[in-house]
Write a structure and sequence with these properties.
Length: 178
């Protein structure tokens, strides 16, 4: 909780703390069990909850930030109609837990198949790999059966990260029905 408070204070300083004195400043935190027990923190800050920015930070077991992303909540699935800090806390819990994906953590072996000759993996709900992830790298990651964690990054998609040995990095975006 102390780190969450520091995250809010830092975000408020970065975005002009006075503007948020009477606005929306809410945090959420979850421990996910892969690798060194990463901690996911999310904070929403804004003049109002309807006009907030959601910031997500993934920290390793030593507390060092390994991944961050910031998005206006108006463009994120699950934040529509959020107007109070209590509602925002619930939306942040879902943001970092992705309930539709069993908590967001799964094995890279469960990533959609990427048939030879196809432009990208998946059928009805495609997976769009990062530009640097070609089919050979994607298949290598699948064979590792490495932990993958996804979080909502839009209205119909989630950013997915893989823990490849000791390295955590984004591998692509999974679409879902919105």
């Amino acid at each position: 909780m102390f780190k969450n408070t520091l995250l809010v204070l830092g975000a408020m300083a970065l975005f002009g703390g006075a503007a948020f004195a009477d606005g929306c400043a809410t945090t959420s935190s979850e421990s996910i069990s892969f690798g060194d027990n990463y901690i996911i923190e999310a904070v929403a800050i804004g003049d109002t909850c309807e006009h907030s920015i959601a910031v997500i930070v993934v920290r390793d077991g030593d507390g060092a930030p390994q991944y961050t992303e910031a998005s206006p909540t108006q463009f994120l699935f699950g934040f529509d109609g959020v107007s109070t800090e209590q509602e925002m806390a619930g939306a942040l819990d879902e943001y970092i837990g992705v309930p539709m994906m069993d908590g967001g953590v799964f094995s890279s072996a469960e990533l959609p198949d990427w048939p030879e000759g196809a432009d990208y993996p998946g059928d009805e709900f495609p997976f769009y790999p990062e530009e640097w992830v070609d089919r050979a790298e994607y298949l290598r990651l699948q064979s590792l059966e490495a932990p993958v964690w996804c979080h909502v990054q839009g209205m119909e998609s989630s950013s997915c990260l893989v823990l490849d040995g000791e390295y955590l990095y984004k591998i692509g975006v999974q679409s879902f029905p919105g």
